Amino acid sequence: MSVSDLYIQIDEGTLWTTNMFKEQYNHFRDIDDKWARPFNEWKQWFVNNASFISLEQFLENNWLKIKNAIDEKHSKFIEQFQNGESKNEIFLNYVCLFNDLDTYFKDVLWIDIDEIREISQKYKGGQL
Predict the structure, then answer these.
(1) Out of the domains of life, which is the source (predicted)?
(2) What are the boundaries of each domain within the chain?
């Protein structure tokens, strides 16, 4: 799995992986023609119609706030990423290592940080 394959379901603040999309697709693909499309075509349709945003775009939209919050708690953390790591990788690493901004992530950004942490730990452990 690539960190570019992660999406946030905006209404719930949950993080979706390709495997989660595949589970949804396999469960409902017999419903109608829209659900019966090939997986990649269906996924794009589903993302566009079910209030999803890529994690990458979500972080891009909120990066200044997130970066400032991280810098307040751990001023040198982001400086450690000088090898072209994406905002996704920086964010997921932070969430794996620290929980001191959980309230901020939940109350200000409206994301399910506990679920995101669980997925990011699986990602770092190579389980996804």
Answers:
(1) Bacteria
(2) 3-124
